[in-house]
Amino acid sequence: MEMLGEITSLMQEMIRNKCINPPGNEMKSIRTVERFLSSYGIESEILESAPERGNLLAVMEGSGNHPSFMLGPAHVDVVPVENEKDWKVPPFEGTIKDDCIWGRGSLDMLYIVASQTVVFAKLHQEGFKPKGDLKLCIVADEEASGNYGANWLVQNHPEKVRVDYLITEAGGDPIGPNRITYVYGEKGTAWTRLRFLGEESHGSAPYNSNNAVVKMSKAIQRISEYQPPRHTSLLIPFIKAMGIGTVTRVLMGNTKTLGFMFRQLSKRNKKDAAFLNSMTQMTISPNVCEGGAKVNTIPGQAYVDVDVRTLPGQDEEYVIDQFQKALAGMLDDVIIEAVPVDLGGGFNPGNISEMESPLVRIMESVIRELRGKEITLVPMVSPGATDSRFFRRAFGTNAYGFSIHDGTLEVGEIMSMFHGTDERVPLGTLELTSNGYMEIIRKLLS
Length: 446
Ligand SMILES: [Zn+2]
Hints:
The protein is an alpha+beta fold. The chain contains 15 helices and 20 strands.
């Protein structure tokens, strides 16, 4: 109970700090964590990547040869609130209401920042002697590039932040009856710009014109209908753990019948179909386009920016190859390039940790102790990116997204609150998550 009070008051202070990225100014919440730790006599190191962009590291050195483990990287930056009036409570006050703590960032991911910080402090207070290094890492800039946060730490202080295992955000969601997720990998991004050239001429005489917008619209049609090859290696363990019936499992496990299965599922549940499909192929979504300048002029230029998400193992060459296949016959009219870096371009490969590892087995035993013997952990690869990718890539860290939701909110509700309205976390989730982390560390490091 005592932990819960400390977690909520830490969260309230961080919600009120309003570290909206951009610009972030995360140093406010980094100082909050530093003050809390020093009230327990814990020294921490602040690593500043830029003015007001802070990261914090605290370490308990291991006394044995167990693997090293990190709580975090846990980010304190949050995304903006579009319309405060849509919220039931003011989004930057940290209101406690209906057994939840409300506010921007509460779910993404201040409840984990606060739980991990308090767990670290309590372990220190009770004189816990880890047999492998135990690190607490609180970071800036996850909601943008990570270039002032996790990526910067991995590049500039690799020896300080390198670990064998870590637990950070996402996961712990109640995805079905007695089914709770953990995230062991994520897809990559390869945002792609398709450019089209035409010939400018007067819009009053379009006969046989060379119109860049027309070319673009044909290409958009093509890529939105194109289906890249499907793979089942991420989907099969997922549906198996979900306890899906044998017949469905066989049909979904076969790339020849998988497309049919998704079309059927989509008729009943579009969201589920889109989510499961994302685990099986590179996805292509043309999302922004621009072309032409004036209504009386045939456009000489147009482009479309495409959100492309790759599976682990698919590289840049694969992406280009897929576009070439999708656009066969019209390649003379299109230039395939990356979206400019300042708009989030640049290839960012999918990445994955061991689906089964000693830590995963510990997570499963702890969640069964806390939530019931009948719980099964469901291995998930997320379609979106987190800071885990930097650690997987740099050190081969086994990085997992894991927390423990109390089951009072449904998974759909939880998902809609990420970057959404009325973001909140049940107090029960804070208790389970912090007790869970505590147990996991005891089991892994003693
Ligand atoms: Zn987050």
